């Protein structure tokens, strides 16, 4: 299978494993999140080592290996994005599988197992048309001040949601129009969403308008903007 097909297969299978754990009734809320992180990560790591043994991997749940810095192809994964939401049995959590090539987010799959949906960087996704009032996604627990201020200036409706992957995919699904984040993230939080959004023709950048670049020595990548291209100029101008 090609890289996009592999990314989807990994995201789908990890999502099924996570749902099985969630539905087992054997874990409390916090223990469920920890178990989910470990189980999904173990599967993804073993599968990637089997299917793409020559590629490097950067995972939230693994000790970083500096050897990845000299690699052209690096899989960047978050086995469970939205651990809190997963533990609370909500649907706004995700599995992120991405492949960065020479620092660019080329391949991505974001599974939303609670919704039975996976979106990938394969061609063909059509973003639904915008509504009359812009809708801006924000964290349901700690909305970033910049996002709230921009929403106010745009007259946008705030849409609280959990994981980064769920928020980014909400733009692709037509549930919202703008995902602006400035509160701190790491490469595994946004690489897969960025790849999927770029493939769908959306604007994807840092909040200063510069491109998202991956496989850095420090994986901290604190901000991003995902939105319709026609909205990007105004949002960036307000920032």
From TrEMBL:
<dbReference type="InterPro" id="IPR050725">
    <property type="entry name" value="CysQ/Inositol_MonoPase"/>
</dbReference>
<protein>
    <submittedName>
        <fullName>3'(2'),5'-bisphosphate nucleotidase CysQ</fullName>
    </submittedName>
</protein>
<dbReference type="Pfam" id="PF00459">
    <property type="entry name" value="Inositol_P"/>
</dbReference>
<dbReference type="InterPro" id="IPR000760">
    <property type="entry name" value="Inositol_monophosphatase-like"/>
</dbReference>
């Amino acid at each position: 299978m090609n890289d996009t097909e592999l990314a989807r297969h990994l995201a789908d299978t990890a999502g099924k494993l996570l749902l099985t754990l969630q539905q087992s009734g054997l874990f409390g809320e916090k223990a469920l999140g920890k178990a989910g992180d470990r189980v999904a990560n173990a599967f993804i790591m073993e599968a990637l080592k089997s299917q793409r043994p020559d590629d490097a991997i950067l995972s939230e749940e693994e000790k970083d290996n500096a050897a990845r810095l000299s690699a052209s192809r690096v899989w960047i994964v978050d086995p469970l994005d939205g651990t809190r939401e997963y533990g609370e049995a909500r649907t706004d959590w995700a599995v992120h599988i991405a492949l960065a090539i020479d620092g660019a987010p080329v391949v991505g799959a974001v599974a939303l197992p609670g919704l039975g949906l996976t979106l990938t960087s394969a061609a063909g996704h059509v973003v639904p048309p915008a509504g009359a009032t812009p809708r801006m996604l924000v964290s349901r627990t700690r909305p970033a001040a910049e996002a709230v201020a921009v929403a106010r200036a745009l007259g946008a409706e705030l849409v609280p949601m959990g994981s980064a992957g769920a928020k980014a995919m909400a733009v692709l699904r037509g549930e919202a129009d703008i995902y602006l984040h400035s509160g701190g993230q790491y490469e595994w939080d946004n690489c897969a969403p960025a790849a999927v959004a770029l493939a769908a023709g959306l604007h994807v950048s840092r909040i200063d308008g510069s491109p998202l670049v991956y496989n850095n020595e420090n994986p901290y990548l604190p901000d991003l903007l995902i939105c319709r291209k026609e909205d990007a100029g105004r949002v960036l101008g307000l920032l």
